[in-house]
Amino acid sequence: MKxxxxxIALAAPLRADLWQAxxxxxxxxxxxxxxxQGRAVGVGQIWPITVMEANRLSKKKYTLNDxxxxxxxxxxxxxxxxxxxxxxxxxxxxxxxxxxPKRAHLADxxxxxxxxxx
Length: 118
Prior knowledge:
By secondary structure, the protein is mainly alpha-helical. It is 56% helix and 3% strand. A two-stranded antiparallel sheet has the order 1-2.
């Protein structure tokens, strides 16, 4: 599974190792991972609200089941982080992935984990 995450990470416009690190921290690269009492799923531990936001921003129609697909998870990650973190550092993108754009400053522990996984 790790190799699938790496392959997917190489296919989009952001540092491949950032996505790899986030997948490692979020789910240990497990596309079937379920966390946060069933609300967060997949390699990126995506919540339903994140899917809705990605659909709103992109005009796409991702489903909740798409969170289990590593490719679609990465697409959602790119949509969210490129919109809310356009021109920002990888650190900021990781922080908003964890805490959202208005609470990114609260994601110190999360960033430390991602940074260690880079």
